Amino acid sequence: MLILVQVERKKQKRLFAAKLRGWLDKKIKGFELWLVRTWNHFVRYVLQLNWYYSIHSILKTLLLAIQMFYTSFEKIFERNRNRTKKLRMEKRQLNSLNHLSQMADHKVDTALSPAQKKKLRHKKLEEKH
Fold first, then answer.
1. Structural contact between residues 4 and 15, judged by C-beta atoms closer than 8 angstroms
2. What is the Cα–Cα distance from 82 to 78, expressed in whole angstroms?
3. Which position has the higher pLDDT, 126 or 63?
4. Whole-angstrom Cα distance, residue 100 to residue 108?
5. Confidence of residue 93 (pLDDT cuts 50, 70, 90)
6. CB atoms within 10 A of CB 125
7. Is-contact 16 4, C-beta < 8 A?
8. Does residue 113 have a pLDDT over 80?
9. Rounded to an integer, what distance in angstroms lies between the CA atom of residue 32 and that of residue 14?
10. How sure is the predictor about 97, in pLDDT bands with cuts at 50, 70 and 90?
11. How far apart, in whole angstroms, are the C-alpha atoms of residue 54 and residue 28?
């Protein structure tokens, strides 16, 4: 067999079962091309899929972190809003009570006695005449 292969190599021509061996060469070459294409596609697909999964997990982690920050800020803002409402209500109550009480106190403090009212009325009437 080795002698046949050496003779064929020297003549660069197949001497034994040339058609059958040519047909087998074509089939083996076709199988090799199919295997290489399949392997390349598989490797490319697996790497691409792993890349997508990696990106997906990173984005998911980032989304969870953003969601945590958003929730915490929302709670802080809600507490601040409630506190602001309470402070405004307290301020309104203090302002309204102080203003009204100050007016009432001033009225009592500056109120004229009946004798002073009579004297003032008499004075005003004299000024008009």
1. yes
2. 6
3. 63
4. 12
5. confident
6. 9
7. yes
8. yes
9. 22
10. low
11. 38
Type of residue found at 78: E
21 contact partners, CB below 8 Å, separation of at least 6: 14
* 8 A C-beta contact, residue 32 and residue 25: no
| HSE, side-chain direction, 13 A CA sphere, residue 63 | 6
Q: Tokens standing for 105?
A: 């106190």
Q: How far is CA 54 from the centre of its chain?
A: 19
Structure tokens at 117: 């009212």
SS3 call for 129 = coil
Give the count of beta carbons closer than 10 Å to the beta carbon of residue 76: 10
* Cα(93)–Cα(96) distance, integer angstroms: 5
Task: Check if the beta carbon of residue 8 is closer than 8 Å to that of residue 14.
Answer: yes
Token pair for residue 70? 């958003």
Q: Where is pLDDT greater, at 84 or 96?
A: 84
| Euclidean distance between CA atoms 9 and 20, whole angstroms | 18
d(CA 88, CA 99): 16
- Residue 67 token pair: 């969601």
